[in-house]
Design a protein that fits this description.
Blueprint (H helix, E strand, L loop, with lengths): L4 H25 L12 H6 L1 H12 L6 E5 L2 E5 L9 E8 L8 E4 L6 E5 L7 E10 L2 E10 L1
Antiparallel strand pairs: 1-2, 2-5, 3-4, 3-6, 6-7
Length: 148
C-alpha cells in the first residue's frame, strides 16, 4: 500500500498527539511525580514576611546567634549564652523539602542554653530549620538549611 504525503502528515500528527497525551497522563497519574506545595497557607505566610524580616534584623544585632551541631543523641541547638534560658520562648519548625509527612515543630522550653531535637525524629538528608523565638519581648528569627 502506498502512502501519499497527506496521509503521512496526518499519521505524524496522530503519533505526536498520542505521545503527548501518554506523557501528560503518565505524569499526572504516577505518584513518583507528585509535587506538593511548600506550605499549605502560603498567602498567610507571605503576609508575615515583613514581620519575619524585622525578626531576622533583630537576630543580626545579637552578639551571638543560635548555633547547631549534630551529636549522637540528635540535633543540638545552642542559644546565646548572655541570655537567661528560662526567659527564652518560641517554637522550632523543622521542614523536610522531600517529604511533608516528616515536618514537625517543637516548643522551646529551656533550662540550659541548649535544645535537643532527638535523633529518632530526624532522618538523614536536607532539613530547613526555622526558630521563631522571643526574649524579654524582643522577637527573633533564625533560619538555616542543613544536611543532617
Amino acid at each position: 500500500m502506498k502512502i501519499n504525503w497527506g496521509t503521512g502528515i496526518v499519521l505524524a500528527f496522530i503519533f505526536f498527539i498520542s505521545f503527548i497525551l501518554y506523557f501528560v497522563i503518565s505524569m499526572t497519574v504516577n505518584k513518583k511525580y507528585e509535587h506538593d506545595l511548600v506550605v499549605e497557607n502560603y498567602y498567610n505566610q507571605e503576609l508575615e514576611f515583613e514581620n519575619d524580616m524585622s525578626k531576622q534584623k533583630n537576630a543580626q544585632l545579637l552578639s551571638e546567634d543560635i548555633s547547631w551541631k549534630r551529636i549522637p543523641e540528635g540535633l543540638l541547638l545552642s542559644f546565646p549564652k548572655d541570655m537567661e534560658p528560662s526567659k527564652i520562648t518560641g517554637r522550632v519548625f523543622l521542614y523536610r523539602p522531600s517529604n511533608k509527612q516528616l515536618d514537625f515543630e517543637k516548643e522551646i522550653s529551656l533550662s540550659e542554653h541548649n535544645l535537643l531535637i532527638p535523633d529518632k525524629s530526624l532522618l538523614g538528608g536536607r532539613w530547613n530549620i526555622k526558630v521563631d523565638w522571643a526574649y524579654n519581648d524582643d522577637l527573633y528569627l533564625y533560619k538555616k538549611d542543613i544536611v543532617y
